[in-house]
């Protein structure tokens, strides 16, 4: 055990007289959630009004600010049925299942700073969009779009084309060609990439979204708590796959879509976990007493996505509490989180945050890896990348993006701690919690894990 871990162990023992759950007294924002039953889930019918209520202020208040900040006079979202732009559903009222035929959205920044929201579609979208043209054939639709653009005479026309940001590259090659053909040369030359606007639109959270986000994250953490309990796990019988499928099916029961298949791994003495090994868990195993188990889970609800990793310990016969060394190891993981989140500052790039946390953890002889990413409308959202699991150095383009206020992140990474009870083998503490940066500090949206889940 390194000096940092030893000092943490001593602090844990002094603070409580016992190692059991003492980490909560040392680290802020710790929260234990017992079950998803603690949280309500809206029906599909009721989600429509909630999502549309959040959309309106984004379009009326946030979009004008972002178009001005990114110097875009007109923004075009052009997509076809079943080939939708990645951000199309973030812009249209629900229930919307597809961009019917060819759907064109036009956002025009007016002299007073407000933004006109127009549609050029065979099928009008209705509020909050005003129909600038409806009906007719496809050629007439493109002519109507070109005429509208000419009438508004914008100087910089943003379109969703990007080499570096997939979410900002939603205008297909065919539609891009058709747009160029429809516009006179003078207007075609005003087409510019809207990638900065797209990234800012997707990464920025509104006040209304911030208010509901803790509920979304709480549901994800609640299902993990259910899965990491004797309600689901029988030591010596249950497999890691059984637990993963419980999580998947429980979310389906709650009508909460996952954005990737949950997975569960375990670590145990004798399995091996070197300092250089990127990930130490194994799947496809029967869970035994003395095992450490881990899961990675992501859901989306009310258009907001989560990404969560938590850890559990399976008590051995005769154990009444999680061993002190295990408590210390989790505390090391919490310390890594603090070093990371303390490095957040408006204007600092993802690469600069990574450099700061590596300097801090290296000075304390911690073995850590940081791979944190933005959250929001997507689980892997655009914004500042803060390390990659396979690259603990600068990340070009995405790592150079600066941090803004009111942006959400998956605080993700791991710390390795050697355990005497495992004959010096490392345990890898893999943590990930959804959090908001409000411009001054990181706030975990539904708290964070500072106590082990315990299977008895």
UniProtKB/TrEMBL annotation:
Residues 220-383 form the Peptidase M24 domain. GO terms for molecular function: aminopeptidase activity. It comes from the Bacteria. Keywords: Aminopeptidase, Hydrolase, Protease, Signal. Pfam families: Peptidase_M24 (PF00557). Gene3D superfamilies: Creatinase/methionine aminopeptidase superfamily. Residues 1-22 form the signal peptide. This is Xaa-Pro aminopeptidase. It comes from Pseudidiomarina insulisalsae.
